[in-house]
Amino acid sequence: MKRKYAIFVLLSAFIFVLAEIPSSPLQNMILNRVMDDSLFADTLPHDTSISPHAKPAAAALKRDTSQMDSLELAIYKHNKAIDDSLALDSINRKKKNGIDSPVKFSAEDSLVYQAGAGMAHLYGSSHVTYQNMDLTSEKIYLCLDSSLVHATGARDTLGEMFGTPVFKMGSDSYESDTMAFNFKTKKGLIQQVYTQQEDGFLTSELSKRGANGELYLRHGRYTTCDEPHPDFYLALSRAKVRPGKDVVFGPAYLVVADVPLPLAIPYGFFPFTKSYSSGFIMPTYGDETSRGFYLRDGGYYFAISDKMDLKLLGEIYTKGSWGISAASNYRRRYKYSGSFFGSYQNTITGEKNMPDYAKQTSFKIQWSHRQDAKANPYSNLSASVNFATSSYERNNLTSMYNPQALTQSTRTSSVSYSTGFSSLGLSLSTTMNLSQNMRDSSIAMTLPDLNISVSRFYPFKRKHMVGKERWYEKIALSYTGRLSNSISTKEDKLMHSSLVKDWRNGMQHNIPVSANFTLFNYININPSFNFTDRTYTNKVKRSWDDAAQTELRDTTYGFYNVYNWNLSLSASTKLYGFYIPSRKLFGDKVQAVRHVLTPSVSFSYAPDFSASRYGYYDTYMKTDANGNVSMVEYSPYQGSLYGVPGKGKTGSLSFDLSNNVEMKIKSDADTTGFKKISLIDELGAAMSYNMATDIRPLSDLSVRMRLKLTKSYTFNMNAVFASYVYEADSVGATPRVSEHTTYWQQGKIGRFQGMSQNLSYTLDNNKISNLFKWLRGERVEKKQKRDDEEEDEDENEVETNLDRDLEKGKHGAKGQGNMAETDEDGYMKFSLPWSLSFGYGVTMREHTDVSKFNYNTMRYPYKFSQNLNVSGNVRLSEGWNISFSSGYDFENKKISMTTASLSRDLHCFNMSCSVVLAPYTSYNFSFRCNASTLTDALKYDKRSSYSNSVQWY
Fold this sequence. Notes:
Elements: H1 2-19, E1 32-33, H2 54-61, H3 70-87, E2 103-106, E3 110-114, E4 119-130, E5 133-143, E6 148-152, E7 154-155, E8 161-162, E9 166-169, E10 172-175, E11 178-182, E12 188-197, E13 200-209, E14 215-223, E15 232-242, E16 246-249, E17 252-256, E18 259-265, E19 268-271, E20 279-281, E21 284-288, E22 292-305, E23 308-317, E24 322-332, E25 336-349, E26 358-371, E27 379-388, H4 392-395, H5 403-406, E28 410-421, E29 426-437, E30 442-457, E31 476-490, E32 504-514, E33 517-519, E34 523-545, E35 550-572, E36 575-579, H6 583-586, E37 590-606, E38 618-623, E39 629-634, E40 650-666, E41 674-690, E42 701-708, E43 714-722, E44 724-727, E45 736-742, E46 751-752, E47 754-764, H7 765-775, H8 804-810, E48 834-846, E49 862-874, E50 880-889, E51 894-895, E52 898-906, E53 909-918, E54 922-929, E55 939-943
Antiparallel strand pairs: 1-2, 2-4, 3-4, 4-5, 5-6, 5-9, 6-11, 7-8, 9-10, 10-12, 11-12, 12-13, 13-14, 14-15, 15-16, 15-17, 16-19, 17-18, 20-22, 21-22, 22-23, 23-24, 24-25, 25-26, 26-27, 27-28, 28-29, 29-30, 30-31, 31-32, 32-34, 33-34, 34-35, 35-37, 36-37, 37-40, 38-39, 40-41, 41-42, 42-43, ...
Helix pairs in contact: 2-3
C-alpha cells in the first residue's frame, strides 16, 4: 500500500513539474503573426478570442500524440481539457481588436520583437502588408496590440534622407518623410506627403488621412509638373482631397519659378476622375474693334453616358453680338459612331441709327455618321454633312488664322442609306446631296436620289449544265433605276421654293444587255445593247411674240416619256513581244524586256432621235425687228433632269492602242531572285470616225501616258490633238473650225490643245542624309514605320470653332526621355529635323482671244497658268517647332496665302503663335498649361480680327 502511494506522489510531482516548464523563446518571435486564431480552431469556437498569455501554453501543448504511451496520452488529454476550460473562461476572453487579416512584416537588416509589449522594430528596407495596404520604409515601428505603425526614413553620412515611407492603399500612393498609421481605424498622420492624383501632384507640410481615404492638407501645393522641384504650383492654405474624385481648397495663389504672383482665388476645386464627368468650360476673353470686348468658347460639358457626350459653348460681345454652338460625339461599339456640330451667330456691327449699323445671322451644321461593317452586312447608313451660310466664316474669329476654312469655296454634304437583298440580287439605295458655293451663295440640292439596281444575271443559262456552254447562255442582263428630285437656287430662296414649279424631278430606267465571246481563241468579242427610258413631269412649249420681240414659254404638267437606245460591238486582243538583250553589252543583270500591245476596235450605232416621229425636238418661227424670219429648233425637255437624246444618227468606229513595256532584272532583295521594273506603264492613243455624218466625222486624237517613276510617285499626262484646222474668211474675221479640212490631210500632226500637270515632292533631313550615304557607297537602311503611327483624318471628326493644328501645338506632347545618340568619336550627334514640300502646277491651253489669233499660221497662241506652293517645318530643338506655308500665283503675279506658326514646349506650359502674312494679316497667340486639368484655367489667348487693322513693320 505504501509503495503504491509513493509511486502516485512521485508521478503527480513529475506531472506538475512538466506543466510548469516554459515554452521556448523561439516560439515567441513569430515573423508572420497570424491574428485570426487559426492555431486553435480545433478546440475553440470561431467567435472566441484567447488571452495572449494563454496562447504560448496552448502552443506548447500542441504535441505529437502518436509518440506517446498510454500514461503520457492520459496526462496530455487531462491537461489539455483543463487548459481549454481556462481559455473558455469569461475572465480570459476579450473583445476582437478589429484586425481580421494576417499582418506580414519583414526587414532586410534586422528585426527586434518584444513579446511582452507586442512591439516589432524593423530596420533596413522594411515592409509591412495588411489587406490592400502596403508600407515600405527604412525604419518601421509596429505595435500589434494597438494596431499602430510608425514609419520614417534615415539619413546618410551626408545628411540626406533616404528610404522615406511609401504607403500604398489600393490605387492610391503616398510618399512622405514621417508617417503614423492605424491599421484598425485606417487613419493616419503624415508629414511632407507627396501623392499623385490623375495628372496632378499634391504635397503638403502636414496631412491627416481619414478612415474613408480622404486627405486633409495644410500648407499644400498642387501642380501638374512631374519634376521634384516644379516649375509652377498653386499654393494651398488648406485642402481636402478625395482620391479619385476631387480636391477642394481654400485660399490659393499661383507661384511660378518660386515667385509668388498676385493671382489668387478664395476657393476652388479640381476633379479627379477617370470616367466621363460633366463640368464647366472656362471661356477665353479678348477684344475686337467692330464687336467690342468678348467672352467666347465658354460653356458646359455634359457627360451623358459612356456612349455619348454634349458640349455647349457660347460667346458674347459688348456691342450686342452673340453666338451659341453645340458639339456631340456618339459611339456604340460594333454598331455605329459619329459626331455632330451646330453653331448659330448673331453678328451686330456699328452703332444703332448709324449708317454703318448692320445685323446679320449665320449658322453652320456638320454631321458625320458611320456604320460599322459588323452591324449589318446588308444595309448601311452613312452621313457627311457640312453646311454653312456664306457669311459664317467671315464672322467667325477662328477663320482668321485657319486659311482652309476661310478660303473654302465649295461645301458638299451627303446622307445615304443602302440595303440589299442577296437572294434576289437586288440593291436599293437613297441619297441626299447638297452642293454649296460660298462665293455667290448658290445651292444645288438633290432630295431624294433613289437608286434601284439588279445585278447582272444570265436569263438563258440552264440550271443544270449538260455538255458545253452554248453561245446564248453567255448573254447577260441587268437593270438600273433612278428617281431624283433636285433644285438649283440661292440659299435665301431654298425654303420658299415650290416643289412643282422650282424643283426638277424625273425617273430613269437603264437596261443593258451584253455578251462575251472568244473568236479564234485570241480575239475577245463583246456585243452590247443599251436601252434608256426617262419619265418627266413637265415639258415647255416655246413660241415667239412678234410684238414684244421675246420668247414665250408655256409649261404643261403631266407624265412624259423619253427613251433612246444604241448598239455596240467591240473586239480586242493582246500581242506579246520579248527581247533578250545582248549579254556582252548588258551582262546577265537584265534578263528580258517584255512589250504588251493591246489593240481594240469598236463600232457603235444610234438612230437620229431628233426625227419628228419621236417628238423630242420642235421648232417655232422667229421674226426679228428687221423682218428677218428664221426657224428656231428646241427641245421641250431641254434642261430636264436626265437630258434629251442627242441629235443626228451615230455610226462611229473607234480605235484604241495601248502599250506596256516591262523589264525583268536580277535582284538579291527579292525572294524569287528576280524583280520586274516598269519602263512604260501605259502609252496609248484613241480616235474615232463617225460614218453617219458628213460634217467633222473624225474625232480628236487623245494620247495618254503613265510612268511609274518610284514606288510612291506615278507620272500621268493626257494630251488632245485636234483634227480639224481653223478657217477665216479674211484677216480680222472671226476664225472657225473647218468642217472638212484636217491636219492629217495636210501631212501635219493634229493641233495640240493643251495639257495640265501637277508635280510635288518633299525633302527632309533623312533623305538628304541617305543621299550622301549613297554617294559615299554606304548602305542605306530603310526606315521602319512606328507601331503607333496612325493615319491622318478621323472620319468621324467634324469641324468646330477650334483650329485643330493650332490646338495640337497648344497641347504639345511631352518630350521623350531618350538618351542622346553619339557618333563614333563620342560626341553627341547634331540633329535638326526639317522637311520642305514643293508643289508645282502648270496648265497649257489655247488663248482663244480673237485679237491674239495669228492669221499667218492660223493658230491661237498658248496660254500658261502656273502656281507654286511651298510648305515646310523645322524642329530647332526638343521643344521648338516652326512651320510655314506659302505660294506664288504666276498669272496674277502675287504671293498666295502665306501662314507661319511657332510653338514652344515649356515642359509644363506650351506657347504657340500663328500668323497670316498674305493676302491679309492676322495673328493668334496662345500660352496655356499642358495638363488637361488646368488647360482651361491657366491660359492666355490673344488674337486679331479683320477690323483690328494689323500692320507689320
